[in-house]
Amino acid sequence: MLRQHSYWQLFSAVCKKDVQLAFRQRAEIVNPILFFLIVITLFPLAIGPEPGLLARMAPGIIWVAALLSTMLGLDKLFRDDFNDGSLEQLIASSYPLPLTVLGKVVAHWLITGLPLVLMTPLFALLLNLDSQALVATVLTLLLGTPLLSFIGAIGAGLTVGLQKGGILMSLLVLPLYIPVLIFATSAIDTSTMSLDYSGQLAILGAMLVIAIISAPIAISSALKVSVS
Amino acid sequence: MWKWLHPYAKADRAYQLCNTLLPYFAVITVVCMLVGWVWGLAYAPADYQQKDSYRIIFIHVPSAILSMGAYSSMAIAAVIALVWQLRNAELAVIAIAPVGACVTAIALITGAAWGKPMWGAWWVWDARLTSELILLFLYLGVLSLYHAFEDKKAAGRAASILAIVGVINLPIIHFSVEWWNTLHQGATITKFDTKAIDSSMFWPLMVNIVAFAGFVGTVTLMRLKNEILQREKHRPWVRQLLNRG
Amino acid sequence: MLHIKSVTCIKQDRCLFADLNFRLKSGQIMQLAGPNGAGKTSLLRIIAGFSAPDEGQVMWQGESIAKNYDEFARELLFIGHKTGVNNQLSAIENLRFWLQIQGYDTDQELYSLLAKIGLVGLEDVPVRTLSAGQQRRVALIRLWLNDAKLWVLDEPFTALDKAGVAFLQQRFLTHLEQGGAILLTTHQDLTTHFAHLQTVTLEYRH
């Protein structure tokens, strides 16, 4: 019985399994996007369709909708693995758990974050954003949505063992999302004024690096608590 | 660190430590609070711009400082709980959390009350107030997570993890809110001008800060004693204690 | 190999067991017995390292498992109530995934193994369409696919038919002959004769 220790094998196996499962039940991929689209449709109906006003509010609308739609998938992130015992197998594997967790979070981003990034041109059209702001929106979503996945996974890990963890998780996670929201929307805002917004992007990037390094450790210890 | 902590890993020793410390904290609290309030509210001179309404800083500022202070001490207790696996530190986390949440609420309410005469509105999205509000959310998150778990051992560890995550995020949140505020409002009135406050107001303020710190310490110790007794209620030493009266 | 050292477990203010001591040596099988709620599963989960004992230690090869968990995890095979089989995936996919996360080579004769355990023709359908006994078999195939020394099995015979139970016990025998150790809970009596069978009974405590 050969044992090869390849961290890449573990990472890709964990990541592939989740993506594969998501593609089997397409609703998991489609629903957050539909949700995002519907939330965005509600705003013009609520505040009026005036193009100038919409363009002014677009960064906020897009980002609040992004926060909410990533929350949808988060509850499921560890729930199935917890219920069927796979989580125990992952903990009792000889690989370090943070690496496994990294694979799962990346999969979550591929399922919920990346489609949002790809759909941005459509949203920009609906909210009357010009091309400069469109580029900024894509860039902030590209840097910001993985951050949402990492931070959110901490909340998901802490609440996965609870019967009604869903709402509690949003309470834990949303306050932690505030810096992402502030810097991302401000980057888009700045871009509409044709100013340089690389500073905000740099801060988002720095936060992402911190999250990639530290969040998996926090998530692993959260999962160990939930399984015990 | 471990050598120093080790004796208090045992619940009964920790309980005794609480008992020894409690009177000191209580005395400091009562004395400083009496002195500070009388001095601050009656004797300190009125502000030349804000008249007497500024006197709320003798409550607002100490509670705002302590709301952050309590969160940091909670996070330190959480680190000790997770790194050295000390159950008593977990209990300390959960003993501090509601106290900190209350102090934060006091800071918010007094801040809003102060805002009314100053800005003409109960709530203004001032950077400090907004940070304070988010801090309250973080406290409430720790508390509701703790109470959502049936198994209190798991609850303590989960709350500790969240407290640590929160304390790492707190400076980032604080910085981002501060930055957001200057971005959107330009130079609005900040409550403190950078010029040093007069020593006739500074010293009563200091006394009040010490009083609040003492108060938080006292209530936390009382809660900690309770938590220890509750968790250890089946142990012989608790039974002995109860039998003694 | 495995040494349970004065382990105590308290759940919801109820002491399940206190100051429990036993050793499990290479080649030995141990059956945990006791009524429902006596703490069998809790003990297994403590031994597998998922939860920490309230007092005492679990030692593996003379070292506390809490200290060097990754090392211990390499020697451990745990199959619990929740079997760790994803019911959206097929049997083959489940096994491949499990081999990957345990760091084993995936080019193994999975199909012939599945045939041996009686799952011919069911290799590629989602596990949720299989019967309870068949699902249990999918989980138990791991027993043929590992080189772990210590097996910790929580009610492995649940939902298995008689032939399955006998087949499983044959596998236990070869594992013990190769110097492994098994710790299991079961309400059924073991039908095969094991030379080194120990029984630990946990009483229900109020």
From TrEMBL, chain A:
Predominant location category: membrane
Matching Pfam families: CcmB
Membrane topology note: Multi-pass membrane protein
Keyword set, alphabetical order: Cell inner membrane, Cell membrane, Cytochrome c-type biogenesis, Membrane, Transmembrane, Transmembrane helix, Transport
InterPro entries found in the cross-reference section: Cyt_c_biogenesis_CcmB, Cyt_c_CcmB_bac
Superkingdom classification of source: Bacteria
Record has Cell inner membrane as a keyword: yes
Transmembrane segments: 29-47, 53-74, 106-127, 133-160, 167-188, 200-223
Compartments (UniProt record): Cell inner membrane
Cited function: Required for the export of heme to the periplasm for the biogenesis of c-type cytochromes.
Family: Belongs to the CcmB/CycW/HelB family.
Name of protein: Heme exporter protein B
Species of origin: Pseudoalteromonas prydzensis
UniProtKB/TrEMBL annotation, chain B:
InterPro entries per the UniProt record, alphabetical: Cyt_c_assembly, Cyt_c_biogenesis_CcmC, Cyt_c_biogenesis_CcsA/CcmC
Span of the signal peptide: none
Domain of life from the UniProt record: Bacteria
Transmembrane segments: 21-44, 56-84, 91-113, 133-149, 161-181, 201-224
One Pfam family here: Cytochrom_C_asm
Keyword Transmembrane: yes
Membrane association type: Multi-pass membrane protein
Domain Cytochrome c assembly protein: 15-184
Compartment(s) where it occurs, according to its Swiss-Prot or TrEMBL record: Cell inner membrane; Membrane
Primary subcellular site in the record, as a coarse category: membrane
Record key words, sorted: Cell inner membrane, Cell membrane, Cytochrome c-type biogenesis, Membrane, Transmembrane, Transmembrane helix, Transport
Family, similarity comment: Belongs to the CcmC/CycZ/HelC family.
Biological function: Required for the export of heme to the periplasm for the biogenesis of c-type cytochromes.
Name of protein: Heme exporter protein C
Organism: Pseudoalteromonas prydzensis
